[in-house]
Amino acid sequence: MYGISEGGRRPGRPQGGGAAPVGQCGNCVPIVACAPLLEQVSTTCQLPDAGLGVCCPVLPKPSVGQGDNRLFTLRRQQVQMRNLSPHEVNSACQKGLSFLGQVTDLESQLIANNLVLPVDTPAHGHLKFFRVTRTARQADLAAQQVNQASRSLLNEFRLSPAQGTHGLRQFPVRNSILADNCPRAPPCNPRAKYRSIDGTCNNLENPLYGKSETSFQRVMPPVYGDGVSSPRTRSVTGSELPLERVVASNILVDRDDPDREFTLSVMQWAQWIDHDLTHAPFASLRM
After folding, report:
1. Side-chain-facing half-sphere of 189: CA atoms under 13 Å
2. C-alpha dist (Å) from residue 241 to 6, 236, 245, 246
3. How far is 43 from 13, CA to CA, in rounded Å?
4. d(CA 264, CA 240)
5. Cα 88 from Cα 94, distance rounded (Å)
6. Which pairs from 100-109 meet CB under 8 Å and 24+ separation?
7. Within the chain, how many helices (H) and strands (E) appear?
8. Among 99, 163, 164, 251, which has the minimal tally of Cβ within 10 Å of its Cβ?
9. How far is C-alpha 246 from the chain's CA centre?
10. pLDDT digits (tens, 9 = 90+) for 20-75
11. Helix (H) or strand (E) holding 87
């Protein structure tokens, strides 16, 4: 469970110890089952199997005909934000388009000059492993355009990370020249006999939920360094975070320690399942 940080108790997080007596916690669940409401949890409890759980708030279920958005609604913060005119938003969006155009031109120049990975090399094989469909590639490019537009607004108007995370959401992309980048819900046939193979319309209230080649929804709000996309460099206490490589090298120690029960096939199977669910587009460099 969460302990005491250097800055003291973390509000809204279970602190461990002082578990609620059995019967006094209306919804005692494993902590993972309460992830979307973790900020509201303050008390631990004992699960039926004697394990440690948390007292999770119970929210009313949505009425019939309404989608359940409890897991897909990010926590909002009220931040002071100047009003951005449609011209200013579109100007930033145009910069996003221009940036991606420059990247595409650079890739074309590299390919024209044969500055590509040699065929039949390990690096080339690894790149082929991350090949994605044209639809996924287009979705990735659309997201990058919006990301670059957001970063342009962030830098031009010197927005704070909080303004980048919460303030920019007041200016939806649907009202800009990047409106075509927004996914559109397809028409659904509520009388269809079978579910679709790609997940489309399996949820009639939210036809894109669970659809292949779409982005994942967030359960918890993102915490970026600049409020848009850069990695965090500071912890919640303000101290500098270690480099990712340092963390990985200290946790994943490279040593010869054969397992007597599981073979490497277990890892390969898990990776196959993982890549079937999640597959982020790689830098294109068309092959």
Report:
1. 6
2. 14, 10, 11, 10
3. 8
4. 37
5. 10
6. 100/141, 100/144, 100/145, 100/148, 104/284, 107/284, 107/285, 107/286
7. 6, 3
8. 251
9. 23
10. 544 457 788 888 778 767 777 888 888 888 888 888 887 666 554 444 454 445 55
11. helix 86-112
Tens digit of pLDDT for each residue in 74-83? 556 788 888 8
Phi, psi of 5 (to 5 degrees): -85, 175
Q: What is the DSSP letter of 17?
A: S
Residues 143/82, Cβ–Cβ less than 8 Å: no
Residue type, 10: R
Of 34 and 5, the structure prediction assigns the larger pLDDT to 34
Q: Which residues of 2-38 are buried (b: 16+ CB within 10 A; e: fewer)?
A: eeeeeeeeeeebbeeeebbeeeebeebbebeebebbb
Give the CA angle between residues 53, 70, 64 to the nearest 5°: 115
pLDDT digits (tens, 9 = 90+) for 83-93: 899 999 999 99
User: Exposed, middle or buried, 93 (CB in 10 Å: 0-12/13-18/19+)?
Assistant: buried
Between the CA atoms of 74, 247, 34 and 47, what dihedral angle is there, to the nearest 10 degrees? -170
Biggest alpha carbon distance in the chain? 71
Asked if residue 213 lies in contact with residue 133, where contact means CB atoms within 8 angstroms, the answer is yes
Token output for 114: 């044969």
CB under 8 Å to 211, separation ≥6 — which residues? 198, 199, 200, 202
pTM of the predicted model as reported, rounded to 2 decimal places: 0.66
Instruction: Find residue 209's DSSP bridge partners.
Output: none
